[in-house]
Amino acid sequence: MYKLYTRPGSGGFVVEAALALANARFDQIDVPKTDRPDQAFLDISPLNQVPVLTLPDGRSITESAAICMLLAERHPDAGLSPAPGEPGRADFLRWMAFMSSVLYPAVLRFYYAPRYTADAEGAKAVKQAAVAEMDRGFAIVDAALAGREWLAGDRLSLADIYLVMLVAWHPDAEKARTAWPGIQRVWARLREHPVISKLNVSHEMWPA
User: For a Cys staple, 122 with which of 91, 117, 155, 201, CB 3.0–4.6 Å?
Assistant: First the structure.
């Protein structure tokens, strides 16, 4: 059985979705947000971040994108990603890497701006730059959605759920409705998905 360390409103959202869609059994441990975590948690998450997934063999893995790709690989029948050799596979890998290396860090810089500057007065500039980077990244993803239903392949994948999670964290999330029509279209469809709407109750990613 898996063990998922998570908390509401975190990157655990997409991992919980992956586990639910795979019908995988797991124990959920809600980790409080604190600067003084238990050493046992730091042993598996040195940066004191969630989510962390402990595998049935006892090994633990961090980084939500990596966890999603691993779960897609371990549960191929769930269709969490295009399979190796399918046309959408390259897009899936590309966009998961892009979102985790461009968009997710920009989100963190916005919400944790003081971590990214040694200037006591510099947080505002960090946040402004973070929003600009988010907007640039979301615009790139939105352009990729032109003429297609989903981000990778011809059906829903974890890349779409990961995208919706990230855009929900934009400080002006409603901007997606007008600025990025492709993203808004995916987001609108996923808000009606039974697994995603259920998770939104506990994570409060967007107004129900």
Answer: 117
